[in-house]
Specification:
Number of domains: 4
Order of helices and strands: HEHEHEEEEEHEEHEHHEHHHHHHHHHHHH
CATH class of the largest domain: Alpha Beta
Number of helices: 19
Strand content: 5-15%
Radius of gyration: 28 Å
Strand order of the largest sheet: 3-4-5-2-1-8-9
Distance between the termini: 79 Å
CATH architecture of the largest domain: 2-Layer Sandwich
Shape: elongated
CATH topology of the largest domain: Beta Polymerase, domain 2
Structural class: alpha+beta
Largest sheet: 7 strands, mixed
Number of strands: 11
Bound molecules: adenosine-5'-triphosphate, magnesium ion
CATH superfamily of the largest domain: Beta Polymerase, domain 2
Length: 403
């Protein structure tokens, strides 16, 4: 297994000071799967204050839970003291955290067997809960009784489906049944954390695992509207790994097409306005007839922006939505963009200042004139020249005077 020297140094320093230290969690799981770990977590018998003392400059990132982050040569390494967790009365956090001297106790409080494997550079693998067997069999199974473990922390139910989405594993039957039985508890988890997990599921290599949010009924307590369990999500993985695209594809495939429903789902999850608006724009395009001529393509591009337009087209192609002339429309829009046609008021060859300089009175009529010029330019991009537009502005102004 490849372990960076910086990480080995941390383990060495802890051991030289008479503490035990092991690699644990996602990095061990990923290394055993032959994948490059995203980060390295170390668990240790050293108490957090000792870790802070041994590594000057380390950051007490989660000191209450015993976590200290050490940054060596730009590599952040999380060091967490062996823990036992007490009762969880609120389904999301332990009532108190107790530090321990036992690696096995620490592994026992971890969520899934595949996440409860420790590795030591000399001792090798320590795997009291058969995580390796489950890794080989590609199974997600809780450490201990699934009902109890999900009862302690409801987020684990989403983590199970997220792991499935990342690795394409299946969920052990008892673990799955427990999620179904306890799905209601997901209400105890903050919307932000739920959104983070959903985003990760959608961006993973096997996003069709989202289906298990339906099958376990978890989604009933996450989305404000009911979603059909029969939705076929197999083609989700063919969409580009981009969040707004995957969300819009998911909503389409699950039959959520109404803007109000989409808004309610996005707002319920406390998505940023940026993410929500982008999903709304793409979904709007998926749900309406596509623009047919150069003018309407330009107008649509000006309303939704070239990026959302391209994302919507890619969804239509990949999900094989029944849209006429898709390829021609895609070609026309690419041409419009590459020829840099004016697609926003700010790219108009004249602005309010230019009009005032040419003798127009400042005021709200100027806005109307500029908008009218913009429509003219959307119809014919060749008109986007200062002298032509000033002449047009004159005509519009005279007509407005008559009205
Ligand atoms: P990745 O970092 O790739 O998302 P990870 O498994 O490292 O995956 P983290 O959230 O970084 O996930 O957690 C590190 C380890 O802490 C996990 O592997 C698991 O052993 C343990 N863990 C994390 N969250 C929980 C939880 N809610 N309940 C029990 N154990 C947990
Ligand atoms: Mg991790």
């Amino acid at each position: 297994m490849y372990i960076p020297d910086e990480v080995l140094t941390v383990i060495n320093i802890l051991e030289k000071n008479d503490h035990n230290a092991y690699l644990v969690g996602g990095c061990v799981r990923d290394m055993l799967l032959g994948l490059k770990p995203k980060d390295f977590d170390i668990c240790t018998s050293a108490r957090p204050e000792k870790v802070l003392e041994l590594f000057p400059g380390s950051i007490p990132t989660g000191i209450k839970h015993g976590t200290v982050t050490v940054i060596i040569d730009d590599l952040p390494v999380e060091i967490t003291t062996f823990r036992i967790e007490s009762d969880y009365t609120d389904h999301r956090r332990p009532d108190k955290v107790l530090f321990s001297d036992s690696l096995t106790e620490d592994l026992k409080r971890r969520d899934f067997t595949v996440n409860a494997i420790a590795y030591h550079p000399v001792e090798g693998i320590i795997d009291p809960f058969n995580g390796i067997r489950d890794l080989k069999d590609k199974i997600i199974r809780t450490v201990g009784n699934p009902g109890e473990r999900f009862g302690e922390d409801a987020l684990r139910m989403l983590r199970a489906i997220r792991l499935q989405a990342c690795y394409g594993f299946s969920i052990d039957n008892d673990t799955f049944s427990a999620i179904r039985a306890l799905s209601k508890n997901i209400g105890a988890i903050s919307r932000e954390r739920i959104l983070e997990e959903l985003n990760r599921i959608l961006l993973a290599s096997y996003p069709e695992a989202f289906k298990n949010l339906l099958k376990t009924k978890l989604l009933n307590y996450i989305f404000p509207i009911p979603i059909s369990e029969t939705a076929d999500l197999t083609s989700l993985k063919n969409l580009p790994e981009e969040l707004t695209t995957r969300w819009s594809g998911l909503l389409w495939l699950t039959g959520v097409r109404d803007a109000e429903a989409i808004r309610a789902i996005c707002s319920g999850l406390k998505m940023s306005n940026k993410l929500k608006n982008e999903i709304l724009k793409i979904s709007m395009l998926l749900n309406t007839r596509l623009p047919r001529n150069q003018f309407t393509i330009r107008r649509t591009l000006s309303i939704v922006g070239p990026e959302s337009f391209a994302r919507a087209i890619s969804i239509m192609k990949i999900l094989k939505l029944n849209k006429n002339n898709l390829l021609e429309i895609e070609k026309a829009s690419s041409q419009i963009i590459s020829e840099k046609h004016c697609l926003s008021l700010s790219n108009l060859a004249v602005n309010g200042g230019d009009l005032v300089k040419s003798g127009f009175k400042p005021g709200k009529d100027l806005g109307i004139i500029l908008n009218t010029l913009f429509i003219c330019v959307l119809q014919n991009p060749d008109l986007n020249q200062k002298d032509i537009l000033i002449q047009f502005a004159d005509i519009i102004n005279q007509k407005m005077g008559k009205i």
